[in-house]
Ig-like domain-containing protein
Amino acid sequence: MVSLMIPLLCWTLCISSVSAEVDQINITAEPGQNITLPCRLPGNKPAAAVDWIRTDLGSGYVLLYRDGRIDPGNQNPSYQNRVDLMDRQMKDGDVYLVLKNLTTNDTGLYQCRVQKEGSLDIKLIRTINLQVLPPANQINITAEPGQSITLPCRLPGNKPAAAVDWWIRTDLGSGYVLLYRDGRIDPGNQNPSYQNRVDLMDRQMKDGDVSLVLKNLMTNDTGLYQCRVQYEGSLDAELIRTINLQVLPPGESLTLDQNQQLP
């Protein structure tokens, strides 16, 4: 592979002219999922470098890969540690983008632009319209600081649960809100801000009830929570419910938006 010594200015300005025939596809996904945005050079030609951008993002790349590595210095912070190429060797012109732990903020128009080996031109290969939509079983809860609330979650058919990570918060970064397995809460993998403030409403998880009790709310608890459960006899964790929690200053009333019937 030819080593690239292309100034970033050229990478930005040397984009080839784009015709109206550039391939565009639409992808719909849900928060918390990992997806792959497909892009391959015509004729499966080898690629020297690739950038993925989002047209509405402003500054920073989704991913810039050149000289055999990801360039983090020019990456938009919201995508750091969440994106990679499916094949860093870019064999057969494969420059698919892996995007992990989706949030609704990832919705946008993505462009895959590639520099072929032996060329200084950067060509737009594909445009992808990504829509990250809340799942049908999402509910919205509004509460006030200092309150204690229950975030409801129950397995379909009231099946018994073997373990639950009630819960992750999609914008939180590292650590669980609560991870319950082997009959106990696992504090080693818990985000410090939730320690001693969360519990399962029923640690026996009878009838598939894995609702989360969250005590002494703070405005920083605002976020998108996901309830994921491992069934008995299975190694896979399944997303059961998403809850959009808004913790607002005093004076706002507590509301529970139940567009979908609670189980």
The first strand starts at residue 23 and ends at 29. The CA atoms of residues 25 and 128 lie 5 Å apart. The two ends are 56 Å apart (CA to CA). Residues 1-20, 253-263 have pLDDT under 50 and may be disordered.
